[in-house]
Design brief:
The protein is an alpha/beta fold and 389 residues long. Helices cover 30% and strands 13% of the residues. The chain folds into two domains: 7-234 and 366-388, Vaccinia Virus protein VP39 (Rossmann fold, 3-Layer(aba) Sandwich), CATH 3.40.50; 237-363, Alpha-Beta Complex (DNA Methylase, Chain A, domain 2). The chain has helices spanning 13-17, 42-53, 68-78, 103-111, 149-157, 177-187, 224-227, 237-241, 262-273, 335-341, 355-364, 368-388; strands spanning 30-36, 57-65, 83-85, 120-123, 161-166, 191-198, 206-207, 209-216, 307-308. The strands form two sheets. The chain has a seven-stranded mixed sheet with strand order 3-2-1-4-5-8-6, with helices on both faces. The chain has a two-stranded parallel ribbon with strand order 7-9. Helix 2 (42-53) links the parallel strand 1 and strand 2. The model is unreliable at 130-143 (pLDDT under 50).
């Protein structure tokens, strides 16, 4: 938006990240959305904040996921009108291109009438089958077909816009799911664009790369709209979490780190005491001394850089470079710190009870700042369309 300040840039990302209370919703005709494979709500939270910054109301008509704990967190924070807990095929089990609705699909439309013809249908199908963090045989993983469930859901619900998030290597899946999805969506009359985006270019303080497919019935999605909002200045780990150092509380799960083994505690202490960032080979476990390709494992994080991708393993030094850059005795990130790096605001309540559950939710989530920008691609065309109504 040459010559004017984009609405997004009138808001402080840092202030939003540290908010203790949820921002007040806008009024007026809402942007209606449905979130499948919803997890704890990172993608939908980004849509909500994108709408707020554009002065629009947002209503989540349906959130669905197989993980009951994740849907509980989603509901607490984002207040969807309806939820569904279960496998996606319990909602949409027909084949893409199949004209006749299955019995389950008819039941879905009858049970969730408000989910029909939403403005935005979004989802991040499980991506482990595509990820480079897995071996090459996973590219044929049955979970890869879940990507095409989003296309079938599009056939049934007929949204104005569709957003599918996944790892970049999804474009190389043996099943060619992105290519098949694109072809079918175009046959349904959608304009389809896809792009790989670096999260750190959109306010997320981590080097996380994700593939997004955006389809619109209304007009061609324009990723250039958000490229202009991207920044060459990376947000750093310090920017995200330095103020949380005094919040460490060993009596809580959310503000404490996982308890390491004696060996790993000694390794972390050595890094701090010797002012080192990478663990020497001689101090690694024998299984990580020969022929490893992961020098960041057991490493200490850097204050003044975006960190590497936050995964569900952020509580273990053996899973990546997840050691706090300054804390002594050495420790890994707390769930609160990891949530900040993922750009979940402080008001977002993870209802923490089990460390494993919250680590999984945080690590698997779409960073809200990234989804906030991607949803702008969809919302812009919806607003243009609605303004003409």
């Amino acid at each position: 938006m040459t010559g004017s300040v984009h609405p997004f840039n009138k808001f402080s990302n840092r202030s939003w990240l540290t908010m203790k209370n949820r921002p007040r919703s806008r009024t007026g005709k809402p942007v209606r959305s449905v979130d499948l494979f919803a997890g704890c709500g990172g993608l939908s939270l980004g849509v909500t904040e994108s709408c707020r910054r554009l002065g629009l109301n947002h209503s989540i008509e349906l959130a669905s996921d197989w993980d009951e704990k994740a849907i509980s967190v989603f509901s607490t924070n984002l207040r969807p009108n309806s939820t569904h807990i279960g496998d996606i095929k319990s909602l949409f089990d027909g084949e893409i291109g199949q004209e006749k609705l299955t019995t389950r699909e008819k039941e879905t439309k009858a049970k969730f009438p408000n989910a029909i013809k939403p403005d935005i249908l979004s989802g991040g199908p499980p991506c482990q089958g595509h990820s480079d963090l897995n071996n090459h045989t996973r590219r044929g993983d049955p979970r890869n077909s879940l990507y095409l469930r989003m296309v079938r859901a599009t056939e049934i619900l007929s949204p104005n816009c569709l957003i599918i998030e996944n790892v970049p290597t999804v474009i190389h899946s043996k099943e060619k799911v992105v290519q098949i999805a694109t072809e079918h969506l175009k046959n349904l009359g959608y304009f389809v664009e896809s792009k790989i985006l670096w999260a750190n270019k959109f306010g997320v303080p981590q080097k996380r790369k994700r593939h997004f497919l955006v389809a619109s019935k209304i007009r061609k999605p324009e990723f250039g709209n958000i490229d202009e909002l991207g920044t060459n200045k990376d947000m750093t780990l310090r920017w995200a979490i330095e103020d949380l150092e005094d919040s460490y509380d060993p009596e809580t799960v959310f503000d404490s780190s996982a308890t390491p083994s004696t060996e790993n505690q000694n390794r972390m202490n050595w890094l701090i005491e010797n002012e080192q960032w990478n663990l020497p080979n001689r101090l690694r476990p024998p299984c990580h001394q020969q022929g490893h390709n992961y020098p960041a494992v057991y490493g200490r994080m850097y204050w003044d850089q975006p960190c590497s991708t936050i995964t569900r393993g952020f509580g273990s030094t053996g899973q990546g470079r997840f050691m706090h850059p300054a804390a002594y005795p050495g420790r890994t990130l707390t769930p609160h710190e990891a949530a900040r790096v993922q750009t979940f605001p402080d008001w977002f309540n993870f209802k923490v009870q089990l460390r494993g559950s919250v680590s999984k939710m945080i690590g698997n989530a779409v960073p809200p700042f990234l989804s906030m920008h991607v949803s702008l691609v969809a919302i812009t065309s919806i607003k243009h369309h609605n303004d003409e109504d």
